[in-house]
Amino acid sequence: MEDATPPFEALLALNAEAVEAMLRRLLDTRPREGEIVRPARLMAAMRHGVLNGGKRLRPFLLVESAHLFDAGGEAALRVAAALECVHCYSLVHDDLPAMDNDDLRRGQPTVHRAFDEATAVLAGDSLLTYAFDIIASEETELPATTKLDLVARLARAAGAGGMAGGQALDLAAEREPPGEEGIVELQAMKTGALIRFACEAGAVIGGANGSEHERLSAFGAAVGLAFQLADDLLDLTASIEVMGKATGKDAAAGKATLAGLHGEDWARRQLSGLVAQAEELLEPFGEKAAVLRQTARFVAERER
After folding, report:
1. How far is CA 88 from CA 9, 59, 194, 235, in A?
2. Fewer CB within 10 A of the end CB, N or C, for the chain?
3. How many CA atoms lie within 13 A of 238 on its CB side?
4. For the chain, how big is the Rg over CA atoms in Å?
5. Is 131 left (phi over 0), alpha (psi -120 to 50) or beta?
6. pLDDT higher for 304 or 270?
7. What cofactors does this protein use (predicted)?
8. CA–CA dist 217, 279 (Å, integer)
9. What's the angle, vertex CA 278, arms to CA 12 and CA 84, rounded to 5?
10. DSSP of 179-198
């Protein structure tokens, strides 16, 4: 019997479409219960920062991790959309002149260029807080204890000990480049924390046991490292036309990266090792983890 499972790229695109549709519903202009009004310009800026394409990799990892335990549905999709709101808030703020000062994101003007800096700050603030609203909402049909766990994990992944802290270390690295250990720590926070959360959240939604949860957390950490290493490699080798954003900025800013320190060949060997590690962590899940294995390879081998 012929395998009816769609190819990986098609699965990724289908999930991106579902997440995009959910985000469009969540980011409309109608105020929710307890809100007074949703200012049109602010909502337009939020939508500009979120509804601009992208692979929606973090939501995909969350949904596929939940599928390991035969969980998912609209509740998982809503949590995935909340995660994407946090990720996109970080990009909106990351692009600001006070941070990375970027003019392009996914081939489009960044939010502060399309609107203004103050609106971009408020759009990012609103996306971050809305993420927790989405998870806590009655419309996200999960047990209260599950929602509490998800909110706490997301707050820690996004905050001072996770993504935001990683951005602070990244800014400090412009003044004083860290050694290899410092680079790994920075990247595990700035990029890896939300990717790890995506896999952990799928385990939480699916009711995973302790061992299963640890494996998915470690898998997410390995994928997060691979994602950043591949990104650094692309920053060295890809063009602005391919990436849809400025490239070569890390070197220009004097930021040390593992790819920059050790070179392209070393980086590709490391990526192969991280993929092997990720696949080994998924072995106990058998064929149910086939898509997650493909995701690890896709992250390491991506060309944009």
Report:
1. 22, 12, 11, 20
2. N
3. 17
4. 19
5. alpha
6. 270
7. Mg(2+)
8. 13
9. 40
10. -HHHHHHHHHHHTHHHHHHH
Question: What number is the average pLDDT over the span 76-95?
Answer: 97
One-letter identity of residue 205: I
Do residues 111 and 52 lie in contact, with contact meaning Cβ atoms separated by under 8 Å?
A: no
pLDDT, greater one: 237 or 281: 281
Classify burial at 152, counting beta carbons within 10 Å of its beta carbon; exposed 0-12, middle 13-18, buried 19 or more: exposed
pLDDT band for position 2 (cuts 50, 70, 90): very low
Start-to-end CA distance of the chain, whole Å, equals 35
Pairing relationship of beta strands 104-105 and 108-109 according to DSSP bridges: antiparallel
Neighbours of 303 (CB within 10 A): 9
Q: Which residues pair with 109 in a beta bridge?
A: 104
Give me the residue spans of the domains in the chain. Answer: 8-301
Query: Residue 109: what are its φ and ψ, rounded to 5°?
Result: -60, 140
Q: What is the pTM of this model?
A: 0.92
DSSP secondary structure letter of residue 32: P
44: Cβ–Cβ under 8 A, 6 or more apart, which residues?
115
CA dist 85 and 96 (Å) reads 17
Domain 8-301: give its CATH superfamily. Answer: Farnesyl Diphosphate Synthase (1.10.600.10)
What kind and span of H or E run contains 161? none
Q: Give per-residue pLDDT as tens, 204-258.
A: 999 999 999 999 999 999 999 999 999 889 888 755 555 454 545 555 555 778 9
pLDDT digits (tens, 9 = 90+) for 152-164: 999 999 999 999 9
